[in-house]
Amino acid sequence: xxxxxxxxxxxxxxxxxxxxxxxxxxxxxxxxxxxxxxxxxxxxxxxxxxxxxxxxxxxxxxxxxxxxxxxxxxxxxxxxxxxxxxxxxxxxxxxxxxxxxxxxxxxxxxxxxxxxxxxxxxxxxxxxxxxxxxxxxxxxxxxxxxxxxxxxxxxxxxxxxxxxxxxxxxxxxx
Length: 174
Prior knowledge:
2 domains, five-stranded mixed beta sheet, 7 strands, Nucleotidyltransferase, domain 5, alpha/beta, 43% helix
């Protein structure tokens, strides 16, 4: 599919030659040309409505969104991955690169916060978060204390975000 008219494509001899070769090869498969056509703004509006309505409730029961996170930090920088799974096989993936120096634990907190904010934006009411960071999970669940001031600040913000969900659970995934 293309937006170009066939006249514009055929003016380029190199492209026209390749097209003739492909036309000969593909002629046995009954391939037909179709114009791409315009994309209307209503498509985007329908997409947003579909996502927001699917995110609320499903048949009166609270739907639980699943958040999988992982972060890493080294001398070259800090990176993170966020995967949010929602209703109707909705899958949102984000790759993050942080422009500041951070420890692995700070990156894990940043990733958790980014995922929770994404889930909140999508209208999730119940969230199951999965992480491989025992320290972050221990601090969020209350099993461990955040002794460093920066970790305590991260923990406090996660606790504030946690209150925006009706159900929130953070589990360890090795």
